[in-house]
Amino acid sequence: MQPNLFSSPEELTKINERKKNTNSIELDPSWKSALRAEFEKPYFSELHEFLKSEQKSGHEIFPPGDQIFAAFDRCPLEKTKVVILGQDPYHGLGQCHGPCFSVNPGVKIPPSLRNIFKELKLEFPNFEIPKNGDLRSWCDQGVLMLNATLTVRAHEPMSHAGNGWENFTDAAIRAVDENLENVVFLLWGRHARAKKELIDSQRHCVLEAAHPSPFSANNGFFGCGHFLKTNEFLKKFGKTPIDWQT
Question: Which listed residue (28, 73, 88, 177) is catalytic?
Answer without folding.
Answer: 88
